[in-house]
Amino acid sequence: MAKERAKRREGNEIEFSRIVAFSDGVFAIAITLLVLAINVPDHLQDEQLAEALWGQRADFLAYALSFAVIGRFWIIHHRFFGEVTAFDGKLLALNIFYLAWIALIPFTSEVLGDHGGEAAGIVLYAANLSGVVLTGFWMQASAREAGLTEIDAASHRELRYRSLYIAGVFLASIPVALLAPGVAPFMWLALFFDPAGRFAAAEPKG
Amino acid sequence: MAKERAKRREGNEIEFSRIVAFSDGVFAIAITLLVLAINVPDHLQDEQLAEALWGQRADFLAYALSFAVIGRFWIIHHRFFGEVTAFDGKLLALNIFYLAWIALIPFTSEVLGDHGGEAAGIVLYAANLSGVVLTGFWMQASAREAGLTEIDAASHRELRYRSLYIAGVFLASIPVALLAPGVAPFMWLALFFDPAGRFAAAEPKG
Amino acid sequence: MAKERAKRREGNEIEFSRIVAFSDGVFAIAITLLVLAINVPDHLQDEQLAEALWGQRADFLAYALSFAVIGRFWIIHHRFFGEVTAFDGKLLALNIFYLAWIALIPFTSEVLGDHGGEAAGIVLYAANLSGVVLTGFWMQASAREAGLTEIDAASHRELRYRSLYIAGVFLASIPVALLAPGVAPFMWLALFFDPAGRFAAAEPKG
Amino acid sequence: MAKERAKRREGNEIEFSRIVAFSDGVFAIAITLLVLAINVPDHLQDEQLAEALWGQRADFLAYALSFAVIGRFWIIHHRFFGEVTAFDGKLLALNIFYLAWIALIPFTSEVLGDHGGEAAGIVLYAANLSGVVLTGFWMQASAREAGLTEIDAASHRELRYRSLYIAGVFLASIPVALLAPGVAPFMWLALFFDPAGRFAAAEPKG
Predict the structure, then answer these.
(1) Residues contacting D136, CB < 8 A, separation 6+
(2) I want to staple D96 with a disulfide (CB 3.0 to 4.6 A). Which of A6, B151, C71, C205 is the partner?
(3) What b/e readout covers C158-179, taking b as 16+ CB neighbours within 10 angstroms?
(4) What is the pLDDT of residues B121-180, one digit of tens each?
(5) What residues form DSSP beta bridges with D7?
């Protein structure tokens, strides 16, 4: 495996498009499985249905949050592979490792929806998403080092800042969750503020 | 993200086809997950199987209805992206928001099948489908404004009428469901009457 | 929709490939969901695991049968769309109707695995597969009539014989199941004998 | 079916890409369904969540193991079809048989996670993976014999060694599991040592 040379994207279109097709498949399934976390109320009197649905509002919130999160990761993955010009066994392996974190989200999201007020649920979710971001950054850095991407220095810098910023927010929320579980999820709102572009622009040109 | 320019479809075929592949994945999974809403009867005497299956006829109806609904949304999505010639970050984000409504249907459809005679189940389902239609219309209008589609004025008008008509039927069924739950689903039959083409044709040429 | 003209496959590759991609997605998901019908034994002493697995041999048989069945339908669908040169709204709608029968198989297969010795389970399964075959035949005949396929007369005849033969076997097993449930599944073995080629060859050239 | 001639990959791109798309779909769904094997703890006091998650560490291990296993099989499948230049009905049928083993993994993996310390669970898992490897080897050898691949003799030899080595490790662990269930899974660590390249290189050139 180690001795295998990288294959160029052109001339191997079917193989290359299978990598993204497989990845898209995992993303699409993971994002669609999120809905299974919302329990369908049964064995109850019909009059209580509205109440039961309202009682599941944490599940709906977790669905919306995780759909947005997986969707955003998909966009980042999509953009990254848009710049990839060749692939080797290592990129394939790292991509599968990356997808293992993505495919875990329906589970950690369901735990978050059911136990959102408790430290363990929040830590689990934050650890999962940190795993996604750090593995994604590893994959990108490794691909760039091996000359598999065409990505220019500025975009790579931006991707790096964005990755570290997102991972940082999730990792920082872990100790907070252990002390004050109710506060930690609010820290994730910091993700809507995306300083990556600004930081990258401020850095001297490489 | 805001400063990013739109990418043309030609020259970015792999990236573009990933967007539709991911969307198709979500549609295909959501439509196939519908079957999980039909409970497999167990822990019963074999003689009662036919009865148990008959007792689930509301589940079969919900399956057929939602399969047709998701299928029709897929055709509309398919037609829309057939006219898209470029994409930007906003289109990607709106598409993911749109898919979040689609992926919710297996849940709301299951609730409808189990509690179809009650207001809350009907309101939930109608709200979900209105969410699909209105987000879809938002996505289309936004793409057209940004010059990302080649769609001609007449077709856009037809799409707009069709979207508003479908959303209107679902939204109108919500207050009806609160007063007379048994009547509301019959209002949805109005969807088989599609006046969009006629209205669009009657409008003066733009 | 009725006035819409058929679109040629060339010039609409992305749209055309979405139709097959969506169909393949539904096939792939339905075939993979079959595994969910095999219950994982739990809440039992470890020593009883082998016994519990053996007790589920009907589930394993249903899995193998339905995997082969969906796989074969996929091959037929694959071959049919390999000959399709244009598509219109009617073909799309019939294809979605066809997929609704395919996506139902995980449910009817699970019922068959759990209640294989009883008439209702067998009738349900046979009805489902007859639905697939007859809708598939309808789709093919309609596409041929509208000039959407390049299929030659001999192949079409073969497809027609094969469709009617398969549907005939399943439909014939329904009354048998009502009288002698234990016998009906053995009738399905007739599917391994495929006389379509021979019949088609014997027919005078059109 | 037997008389059907092989179709070349060029000239049948859509049909060919459907085969890999369908296969990728099954791989992607099977790998993503693994997450459903991890039970979400419910009906418990929130304080016990961390404990409950810790109690499921065997499920997490089975998830990681099976994700790596399916991922590796996908890479092998991906590489094999990268060399395929034509396809016939037999290759399609063998591919579906192969996928039936892949799609079974979420079930056997869940049993392994829940009953990892017991012989039956380990034997089931090892038998499943042996089924994958041996069917994969059958498919490859058959495709090579029919002249459907461009694979050179050295690569084919390597693939053969790798297949037999992996199958051998799993098959050898079956009798061990019956005697000492605790030891068998550790035998699978031998898979990380991949002697295929070396053996193949040592063999006289064909």
Answers:
(1) D73, D76, D77, D80, D98, D163
(2) C71
(3) bbbbbbbbbbebbbebbebbee
(4) 889 999 999 999 999 999 988 998 888 887 778 878 887 888 888 888 889 988 888 888
(5) D87
Tens of pLDDT, residue by residue over A87-113, are: 888 898 999 999 999 999 999 999 998
Q: What distances in angstroms separate CA D160 from CA A119, B13, D127, D133, D196, one per listed residue?
A: 50, 36, 19, 10, 8
Residue C28 to residues A75, B25, C65, C128, Cα–Cα distance (Å): 24, 10, 16, 18
Instruction: Chain B: give the shortest CA distance to residue C123, in Å.
Output: 10
SS3 at position A34: helix
The ipTM value here is 0.83
By Cβ distance, the residue of B28, B41, B46 closest to C25 is B28
Structure tokens at A175: 């100790």
What is the band of B198 on the pLDDT scale with cuts at 50, 70, 90? low
Contact present, D109 and D63 (Cβ < 8 Å): yes
Q: How many other C-beta atoms lie within 10 A of the C-beta of residue C130? A: 20
- Cross-chain Cβ contact B111/A197 below 8 Å: no
- Beta-carbon separation of B16 and C15 below 8 A: no
Name the residue in chain B with its Cα closest to that of C90. Answer: B75
Distances (CA, A) of A65 to A52, A58, A59, A131, D60: 21, 10, 10, 17, 23
Nearest-angstrom CA–CA distance, D50 and D37: 18
**Cβ-Cβ contacts under 8 Å, A110 against chain D:** 40
The region of weakest confidence among A77-86, B3-12, B161-170 is B3-12
- Provide the CA B136 distance to its chain's centre, in angstroms: 8
Q: Cβ of A100 and D64 within 8 Å?
A: yes
pTM of the model: 0.87
- D chain contacts of residue A177, beta-carbon cutoff 8 Å: none
pLDDT tens-digit series, residues D83-98: 888 888 889 899 999 9
Question: pLDDT tens-digit profile of C60-96?
Answer: 989 999 999 999 899 888 888 888 888 888 898 999 9
CB neighbours (10 Å) of residue C66?
Answer: 25
Q: Do B74 and C96 touch (CB under 8 A)?
A: yes
Interatomic CA distance for residues A31 and A26, integer angstroms: 8
Q: Closest to A46 (Cβ–Cβ): which among B15, B19, B115?
A: B115
Name the neighbours of D, counting chains with at least 3 Cβ pairs within 8 A: A, C
Q: What is the pLDDT of residue B205?
A: 46
**Whose CA is closest to C65, among C41, C34, C91?**
C34
Residue D44 has what DSSP assignment?
S
- Residue B124: CB atoms within 10 A of its CB come to 22
- Name the minimum distance, in Å, from the CA of C49 to any CA of chain D: 6
> Are B121 and A49 in contact (CB < 8 Å)?
yes
Q: Which amino acid is at D179?
A: L
Say which of B15, B107, B118 has its CB closest to residue A40.
B107
Can you tell me whether residue B175 is helix, strand or coil?
Answer: helix
In sequence order, the β-bridge partners of residue B87 are: B7
Do the Cβ atoms of C28 and D25 come within 8 Å? Answer: yes
DSSP-assigned letter for residue B42: -
| Residue of D12, D20, D35, D61 for testing the chain A interface, max A β-carbons within 10 Å | D35
CA C31/CA C105 separation, integer angstroms: 8
Give me the phi and psi of B3, to 5 degrees please.
Answer: -80, -15
The beta-carbon neighbor of D38 closest among A36, A107, A120 is A107
- Single-letter amino acid, residue A162: R
Question: B22 and A17 in contact by Cβ < 8 A?
Answer: no
Inter-chain touch B68–C96, beta carbons under 8 Å: yes
- Residue D40, CB half-sphere, CA atoms under 13 Å: how many? 24
Sorted by sequence, the CB contacts under 8 Å of residue A176 that are 6+ apart come out as A183, A184, A187
Question: How far apart are the C-alpha atoms of D88 and D101, rounded to whole Å?
Answer: 21
Please name the amino acid found at residue C40: V
